[in-house]
Design brief:
This protein folds into 2 domains: 265 residues, ATP-grasp fold, B domain (D-amino Acid Aminotransferase, Chain A, domain 1, 2-Layer Sandwich); 64 residues, ATP-grasp fold, A domain (Dna Ligase, domain 1), CATH 3.30.1490. Helices cover 32% and strands 19% of the residues. The protein contains 10 helices and 13 strands. The strands form 3 sheets. Strands 8, 9, 10, 11, 12 and 13 form a 6-stranded antiparallel β-sheet that branches. A 4-stranded antiparallel β-sheet has the order 4-7-5-6, covered by helices on one side. Strands 2-1-3 form a 3-stranded parallel β-sheet. Helix 3 runs antiparallel to helix 4.
């Protein structure tokens, strides 16, 4: 009988209690109609669900919360000896820049893992470096400048409106309706806000009016673009800008969450669809992503394509983002998870990966 691959679904949630529901349902006073059903699915439950689905399709799988404890992680690897780490770790000690160190450790130990390598995670962590690398190979991004110190006056050549972002965050952290500004006074105010509260450089870039496209890229040596997903802003109220803010992504009780509606596959002219996929694959390769990534692109009102973000290891929640495109490409959720694991395991075999954590450390 063929031995089942052992897969560790690894994540890092130090304080699971923060996900306790504040209230049981929407307040009756909501002045908008919810589009999505709200549930109490926490990240911990999501990873357990992923582990259970993997078991049903033939893997020996378990979920592991390392809780900021690297020794807990190492002891588990030594005891359980997983064949593949399904890597869901996005930060360590509350520091997203340490995300790359985890996979660096796995490289040293010779354990195959899913998703981007350390260099890709490091490069994509910096929006500034990402833009420079993409611009260097001819991929358009919105015009920008960076500020590292508080300012009282400003001199720039950007056209308003301008959007200000923390330069080292992902998952839309620090991006809200107030991030878009229309004059110098508001620009200075928002830059100083980002510098103070996020303690990192502030990135200011021209806001591209138009359509927002999410391109899921799948593969390792031969990546391919999946059906394009679009964020439909047609029901967005006038007081909110057409952006996928932090609230739109992560706050089920916020209006923006229910007004950024995905459409997959997006309806696009064939030439634009082809161009967007070519750009996304080129961005994927330029940033040295692997297995799966999501490239966020704006299609301007005059049909120019601008890359906004390169997201290695994006959210794999069923029905969200990346998985929406996988479903449109005729992958069931379980089949999609298996595909990502297979990519990592075959890469390990191809590179003759061997576990070094045998006798201790």
């Amino acid at each position: 009988m063929k031995k089942r691959l052992k897969v560790a679904v690894v994540y890092n949630e130090v304080d699971p209690s923060i996900y306790k529901k504040v209230d049981d349902e929407f307040e009756e006073e909501q002045n908008f109609v919810p589009y999505f059903e709200i549930d109490d699915l926490t990240p911990m439950k999501e990873y357990e669900i992923i582990s259970k689905k993997l078991k049903r399709i033939g893997f020996s799988s378990y979920a592991l919360n390392i809780k900021d404890d690297i020794y807990l992680f190492l002891n588990d690897i030594k005891e359980n000896r997983p064949n593949v780490i399904f890597n869901f770790i996005e930060l360590f000690n509350d520091d997203p820049t340490l995300e790359m160190n985890i996979v660096g450790l796995l490289e040293l130990l010779g354990i195959p893992y899913t998703g981007a390598p350390a260099l890709a995670l490091a490069n994509c962590q910096s929006k500034i470096l990402t833009k420079k690398m993409l611009n260097g190979v001819g991929i358009k991004t919105p015009k920008f400048f960076v500020t590292e110190s508080p300012i009282n006056v400003i001199n720039h050549s950007l056209n308003y409106p301008v959007i200000i972002k923390p330069a080292m965050e992902d998952a839309s952290a620090g991006i809200g309706n107030n991030s878009i500004v229309t004059n110098d006074a508001l620009l200075i105010e928002r830059i100083n806000y980002v510098l103070k509260y996020f303690e990192q450089p502030a990135l200011a870039e021209e806001f591209i009016e138009g359509r927002e496209l999410n391109l899921a890229i799948l593969g390792d040596e031969n990546p391919r673009a999946l059906p394009i997903s679009e964020i439909d802003f047609s029901t967005m109220p006038e007081h909110l800008y057409n952006i996928v803010s932090y609230e739109a992504k992560w706050e089920p009780h916020d209006e923006a969450y229910h007004k950024t509606i995905p459409i997959c596959p997006a309806i696009l002219p064939q030439t634009i669809e082809n161009d967007a996929k070519k750009i996304a694959i080129k961005a994927f390769k330029t940033m040295q992503c692997r297995d799966y990534a999501r490239i966020d692109i704006r299609l301007s009102e005059n049909n120019e394509l601008f890359v906004l973000e390169v997201n290695p290891n994006p959210d794999l929640t069923e029905g969200a983002g990346f998985m929406r495109s996988m479903e449109a490409a005729n992958y069931t959720y379980s089949k999609a998870l298996k595909k990502i694991i297979d990519l990592a395991y075959k890469r390990g075999k191809r590179n003759n990966k061997k576990h070094w954590l045998v006798e201790g450390y």
